[in-house]
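Re: the request from the purification team.
They wanted to know what the chain is likely to look like in 3D before they choose a buffer screen. I agreed to run a prediction and write the result into the notebook, where they can find it.
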Amino acid sequence: MAEADDEIRANNAELQGRVRIAAPRHLASAILVPAIHDFVEEHPNLEIEFVLADRRVDMIEDGIDIAMRIGPLTDSSHMVRKLGEFPRVTCASPKFLETVTLGADPTELKELDNLAYHFPGAMTGYPWEFSKDEKNLSFVPSGRVIFDDLDAYVDAACEGLGVIQVLWFQAKRSLDHSRLIPLFADWSGATVPVWALVSERRHIPKRTRGVLDWLRLIISDAEAKAKNDVATWQT
């Protein structure tokens, strides 16, 4: 990683100008913000403007240079670079786990009144996915309490309202402080890709290329931390 950092610093010397990055709020707060200080210190003539929203922005209309997306892509009109992927984590609070008995099979969750999350504007939730050896499971959890905001969704789980499945970085702080406990350690949650979309296809400004390289490095580093966390939970 150190050699890659040195190479990128050499290639991206004297970056200047403004780069507008659209990113999901949780991705920015958990991964981008902790890493931004050193990068802007290295490039005093570079300005980075974050446009944070969980909705998908119109890159041309909103003047976005780089849009970070999580999950399947439906927009192929821009240049796309895969930055990495993160595992999903199924978890619940110690308070909730005192009220139920869960075995080793995630299908038991079908019988529970879980917490549900719908993407803003969506009418249904996304399926929870699990894999173990050659076996794959996928089902949309039932739940009488539904959120379209991830902060409230995670907070509700921490308060003992039910089980959730989120991406690693969306629950990392609560997991690190034992407000949430990872479940079904023998099963792997599906990994979800993280992409960078670039508004320019032909000529990408040097400042944009430099920021793309920085994003690739910090996402790769976070991906390694996620894998280490998952391995720790499985021991």
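For the purification team: The chain has a mean pLDDT of 87.
Please add any questions underneath this entry.
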